[in-house]
Amino acid sequence: MPAVTSGFESGGGREVLIDLARAAAGANGSYANFALTRVDDHVVRLSVMTEPFYWHRHPDSDETFLVVEGVVLLETAHDTVELRPGQLYTVPAGLAHVTSPITARSVNITVEKSGMSTERLDALVRPETSG
Length: 131
Hints:
- By secondary structure, the protein is mainly beta.
- It has a domain at 30-120: Sandwich (Jelly Rolls), CATH 2.60.120.10.
- It has one helix at residues 20-25, and strands spanning 4-10, 13-18, 31-39, 42-49, 56-57, 63-69, 72-76, 80-83, 88-91, 97-101, 106-113, 119-120.
- The strands form 4 sheets. A 5-stranded antiparallel β-sheet has the order 3-4-11-6-9. A 3-stranded antiparallel β-sheet has the order 8-7-10, with no helix packed on it. Strands 1-2 form a two-stranded antiparallel sheet.
- The chain is globular and about 40 Å long.
- The N and C termini lie far apart (55 Å).
């Protein structure tokens, strides 16, 4: 069975079966990110990482992360969160963030607007908090 199987199409949509394990197994290199399917005006992507991504932001779209395998460190301009399998986190549009696998590899689902833009940023230094 292929990783993505299209089924019956009707009207403006289609039925899709996706085997996440098979799709992730086909990923090569230190970072792979590819579209699995579309839902209305959003794209559902699979990200497989063995190394950190770079600091960036999406000025025109929220980005939601759902961890499938491994542990991901997600840092924003305001917070640092460890995401484990089954945990979901949404980064609001415009907020700088970076993801790094804590384990040898992480597999994540991301959901974002189709055609959204990505702005690469220099490494971000968060302000010290008092307390």
